[in-house]
Amino acid sequence: MTFIRESALFHLWLYLLALYDSSTLHRLLTRAGSWCSRQINGSRLLAPLCREGCVARAWPESLLCRALNFLVNLPLLLLQKLYTLLSPILEDSFFARFVFTLGDKTPSVQFWLILVMWSIPFSRWNNAYSLAAFFLLLLLFHAGAMPHREYRIALERVGFYPLLLFGSIFLAVVFSRLRSSSARFLVYHISAALCVIVTVSAVRHVEDLKRLAAGAAGCALTSSLYGIYQRSQGVKVNPSNVDLRLALNVGMPGRVDSIFDNANTFAEVLVLLLPLTLALALCSKKLLGKAMAFCAFSLGVVALGMTYSRASWVGFACALTVMIFLWKPKLIPAFALFCCFAVPLLPTTIWNRILTIGNLSDASTLSRIPLYEGTLRLIKASPISGAGLGTAAVQRYLSFHNLYRGDFPYVHAHNFYLQVWAEAGILGIISFLAAMLWGVKQAARTVRHCESSAARTITCGAAAALCGIMVCGLADYPWNYPRVMCIFWFVFAMTLAGINLCSKTD
User: Fold this and answer.
1) Which of 55, 59, 126, 186 has the fewest C-beta atoms lying within 10 Å of its C-beta?
2) What is the 3-state secondary structure (H, E, C) of 256-297?
3) Pick from 406, 372, 410, 415: which is nearest to 394 by CA?
4) Sign of CA dihedral 203, 209, 213, 215
5) Which H helix or E strand runs over 8?
6) CB within 8 Å of 214: residues ≥ 6 apart
7) Do residues 90 and 190 make contact, with C-beta atoms less than 8 angstroms apart?
8) Number of domains in the chain
9) Does 347 reside within a domain?
10) What is the pTM of this model?
11) pLDDT digit string, tens, across residues 28-41
12) How far apart are CA 247 and CA 132, in angstroms?
């Protein structure tokens, strides 16, 4: 640390900061930022966004919430009573004390699990890892809660709409056209549900939240480094991912996919993790931690560019905008100015790729139209129940009723919202949209009334990541890969955990 502070580069940085602080540009941006902040805080647009809905207000004290809390916490209550009876024996046991201590540090264990689990190459990945990991965390949470009566699973923090969504997913299996396959997909959703429940219940301190954000940053760093290494070694252009017949795509290098099977999948993971990485960089107090987080974020941005995933680029841009809007609205003019200067400096291949967005001459864009049409026919034919959970059930329904008429095999709808509706029916899509809107609204409402803190910054980053992936979902289906689904719900859980900590601070 002393070496860094005494380096010439560090002193140059301090000189440039001092020069900027005394400049006319700084004064203009400060005044513009203050005006922008006043307009946003007093706007009619922000008021409904920050207004708590009647369902959200009623849920914690509702009979249903109390009944569900009692049921899910019943095993924990029995374990706590068992501990009371056997406490003299257990306190004398080294193994028991070790397990209790480890369980009390569940977020620390989760940090290592996600860091290792989400850095496993696709060729060695097994979807059972997620279920095993979060089931282990649930057991550890119960072990850590045995000596602490106040520790429990908090379903009131999870919220009504996410629980309703998980309920609709169970119904999608019951009414599925292919129950055996849907049951397999149900396991993936159970892993995601365990991730949300454990994360929201186990995070009790700001340091826990920062530790999990560091795990996300570590995953972003390792995958980005490997993606950049791929590019340095050369990536073969895949004609199925790039329409080389289009003049704008000529000369575009191969798309990196890092440790994942697909470049779009890798890009979606970065859209989810990079806002958390940036938030960690902003709230880290130690210079080394801040530098490492900024390094991970910068490398992640570079790797995201190398994926050439257009939907993810748009999603990431929206995520950054939302994060600044929630975190410090006064920085919006500075952010806009930065974009004006940075965008023209983009490489030609990225510029050309951006220009193909919405271009129906591009085969990738054109191929999505039959997918949308086929999925809409399915929704029209079965709007209430859908086809059943999982892409296989949707594929079977489309094939049986001859609803898809595209030239390429139907994998999924390439649209988040259409796919959820096609799988889980009307209840699934309504509860999904309500859960996401509720999560973002809760975050916006909480950070508005919360003092500046690490919890507030990370909450802004997590909510922004959700917004980014929802925009990305207009042209892709992130849940097609169960690992991405788990990361999605981890970010959602980080949002809820941050909201809880901000509420305590407030």
Assistant:
1) 126
2) CCCCCCCHHHHHHHHHHHHHHHHHHHHHCCCHHHHHHHHHHH
3) 410
4) negative
5) helix 8-21
6) 111, 280, 293
7) no
8) 1
9) yes
10) 0.92
11) 766 666 766 666 66
12) 48
Q: Which domain holds residue 393?
A: 190-370+374-378+382-505
Letter for the amino acid at 428? G
Q: How many residues does the chain have?
A: 506
Task: Show the tokens assigned to 90.
Answer: 């257990």
Q: Which amino acid is at 70?
A: F
| 3-state secondary structure labels for all residues of 411-442 | CCCCCHHHHHHHHHHHHHHHHHHHHHHHHHHH
% of the chain residues with pLDDT over 90: 57
Query: Would 154 be classed as within a structural domain?
Result: no
Sign of the Cα torsion 343, 440, 197, 280 reads positive
Structure tokens at 123: 């060729």
Instruction: Name the DSSP letter for residue 360.
Output: T
pLDDT band for 286, please (50, 70, 90 cuts): confident
In-domain check, residue 107? no
Please report the pLDDT score of residue 92 as a whole number.
Answer: 78
CB 50 within 8 A of CB 448: yes
pLDDT digits (tens, 9 = 90+) for 105-153: 999 999 999 999 999 998 899 989 999 999 999 999 999 998 888 899 9
Check whether 195 has a pLDDT greater than 90. yes
* Residue 460 placed within a domain: yes
- Among 68-82, 220-234, 328-342, whose mean pLDDT is lowest? 328-342
**pLDDT tens digits along 223-244:** 999 999 999 888 787 766 666 6
